[in-house]
TrEMBL record:
<dbReference type="InterPro" id="IPR000182">
    <property type="entry name" value="GNAT_dom"/>
</dbReference>
<dbReference type="InterPro" id="IPR050276">
    <property type="entry name" value="MshD_Acetyltransferase"/>
</dbReference>
<feature type="domain" description="N-acetyltransferase">
    <location>
        <begin position="9"/>
        <end position="197"/>
    </location>
</feature>
<keyword id="KW-0808">Transferase</keyword>
<dbReference type="GO" id="GO:0016747">
    <property type="term" value="F:acyltransferase activity, transferring groups other than amino-acyl groups"/>
</dbReference>
<protein>
    <submittedName>
        <fullName>N-acetyltransferase, GNAT family</fullName>
        <ecNumber>2.3.1.-</ecNumber>
    </submittedName>
</protein>
<dbReference type="InterPro" id="IPR016181">
    <property type="entry name" value="Acyl_CoA_acyltransferase"/>
</dbReference>
<dbReference type="Pfam" id="PF00583">
    <property type="entry name" value="Acetyltransf_1"/>
</dbReference>
<keyword id="KW-0012">Acyltransferase</keyword>
């Protein structure tokens, strides 16, 4: 694929036949994050785990979508609604939460992520949500994309600092700051972003 114009992207709800591709995308995404500074989080991502998670809460399949390009799964988004399992965020009644979004590295920057986020907005509205939110780590290029789509960062409270320190040291690890990158205090810091639907 050489350009977004050349690619016809279709977004559709997740089905069982997509599980292997979801595991592939999740693995790729999670391997960019470290547990205890050295173990890539993606080591646990596989098709059986994807199947197990959806079987535990089949409703989650209705709020998950894949992006297809020439029938190939190139992207994935998982939304979580109030009452669905979510270990990283307490989802409120009027809220849709983007739990994970990932696009195949070969297809990034071509508009697929934007289409998946648009789908998530629609699902949130259909389910009567008034806002949609997500968490992103400071320094992630995706922040620009979220801002362009109307997400606004919510200031973190001082109480969250110890939790943030724990999160950064366990899951992100120490990093050397490359020139031009965000300041240390933003790099790897969890940023909660929200937008009205
Ligand atoms: C973030 C991501 C889902 C966006 O999907 P996409 O199809 O590349 O997005 P679009 O083509 O619609 O929009 C392009 C924007 O995405 C962001 N982006 C591009 N490449 C990216 C990358 N490798 N990693 C993160 N964000 C990227 C940029 O904001 C870009 O805008 P820009 O070209 O003005 O800089 C995708 O890049 C990705 O899977 N990244 C790695 C996983 C990740 O960071 N997920 C988000 C966790 S909160």
């Amino acid at each position: 694929m050489s350009s977004a114009e050349a690619a016809v992207v279709t977004i559709e709800a997740v089905q069982e036949k997509h599980f292997a591709d979801l595991a592939r995308l999740q693995k790729e995404f999670l391997n960019s994050k470290m547990m205890c500074c050295c173990v890539p989080l993606g080591v646990f991502a596989n098709e059986a785990e994807v199947r197990k998670a959806f079987h535990k809460c089949p409703e989650m399949m209705k709020v998950a979508a894949v992006a297809l390009v020439d029938d190939q799964v190139m992207g994935f988004i998982q939304v979580v609604l109030h009452g669905m399992p979510c270990e990283i965020h307490t989802v409120e009644k009027d809220e849709a939460y983007v739990y994970m979004i990932a696009v195949d590295p070969d297809a990034r920057g071509m508009g697929i992520g934007s289409k998946l986020l648009e789908w998530a907005d629609d699902i949130g509205r259909q389910r009567g949500c008034e806002k949609i939110s997500l968490d992103v780590l400071g320094g992630n290029k995706a922040i620009g994309l979220y801002e362009r789509r109307g997400y606004v960062a919510k200031p973190a409270s001082c109480l969250s600092l110890p939790a943030m320190f724990f999160f950064v040291s366990c899951f992100v690890g120490l990093r050397i700051r490359p020139s031009g990158s965000p300041p240390y205090w933003n790099y790897g810091k969890d940023i909660f972003m929200v937008k009205k639907l």
